[in-house]
Amino acid sequence: MSEALWVEKYRPKVLEEMVNQEEIVSRLKQFVKAKAVPHLLFAGPPGTGKTTAALALARELYGERWRENVLELNASDERGIQTIRLRVKDYARTMALGDVPYKLIILDEADNMTSDAQQALRRIMELYSRTARFCLIANYVSKIIEPIQSRCAIFRFQPLEKDDIIERLKFIAEKEGVSVTEDGLEAIWEVSRGDLRKAINTLQAASALGTVDSRAVYRVVGRVTPEEIREMLLLALRGEFIKARECLRDLLISYGLSGVDIIRMIHSEIMNPRTKLEIPDEARVELADIAGEINFRMVEGADEEIQLSAFLAKIALLGRKYRIG
Question: For residue 77, what pLDDT is reported?
Fold first, then answer.
């Protein structure tokens, strides 16, 4: 089964099954109860339940006939003005089937629509408000023009909590007969950071290697483990610069990681409150400052290996300053 089908298989079918978005679910259920749904704009990070909420709303609103009354388009693929003028407009002007007097048009990834398409959409939303309601889904609400935002009830989705994601992953693993360890679940959380879709896809990819533990998770996402990053940092802090640089070269060559990837993992390890990197807070602050400077240099085009070696050298000086190791 493909990763997309896994996500679809375990997607909540009704609003009650959604977690961590209680206020949004409550407001949507009020709309369903009154059968009075305004134009909607769902905004928030990827994998937080925006598309799921739209489809669950459609199921509860239309019941068994929801497919006949819903048009779902991915605006990142069909984002031009012609799609809005022809396909969306033709669908919006037809009457709904059943006791709900309007159809529902779901435009996923609406923030990828062109400016002209959005200008055309704003007029259609006004003209056909008796026969159609629009549900726009966007990761970045700032990319939706103000006239459309003012016509919609805006729902802001938050990243899912760690406990909710882990509970869902355990449920899926049990249903699919996948063996998953606690450190594997922790690793998936570290990789996904509130994105349930990414978490489910990572679980499936790692399950192909057997038991889903932390090493399997980091292997399938192309990342090194926090322990390897921590070992390199500790070597540098103890003044063992040459050994730390050998670890760095191993990460660059053996794992095929870019310098930007490595500095991001270093920053994550430095800022992680649960890290086993036991250093004074003052040293942690200076490390974060240096990491930001090195990241900027690499993004601007500086040589990655030279910059990361300079980073390790500065860490070694910090270790001597704070007498670490």
Answer: 64
